[in-house]
Sequence to fold (124 residues):
Amino acid sequence: MGTKLSVSLNDVLEPETAPRIDRPPTFDPLYGFPNGRKPREMKVSMKDMDEWNLKPGQRDYCAHLLIPLMRCQKKYAPFAGHMCDADRHNWDRCEYDDYIMRIKEYERERRLLQRMKRKADKQT
Fold:
């Protein structure tokens, strides 16, 4: 419920209401949040990510949990499977929460674009 990414045939048939994922959001990120939003921050520096040779896809908001997982796997290799379960769980949970956040942002953008189109159609 609410976790499906709405990339569908409607996005192809109505491109003006489909968010562009290769560009920044069209609308103000604080629009609709009267008390503001907590800004997302990277908790690990670029230097640390370079030190651990993180790939571009791993340099996200969960990198601060991936580094301890990699450290644990390196320490207990080749038997790191059960020794690093807690670190793996924390990183997986962060990745899941980040995925859900991105889906919600996509949906918010899509709905605001649809609302803007409805308002423009009503005025003409």
Notes: The CA atoms of residues 50 and 59 lie 10 Å apart. The two ends are 35 Å apart (CA to CA). The chain has four helices and no strands. The first helix runs from residue 9 to 13.
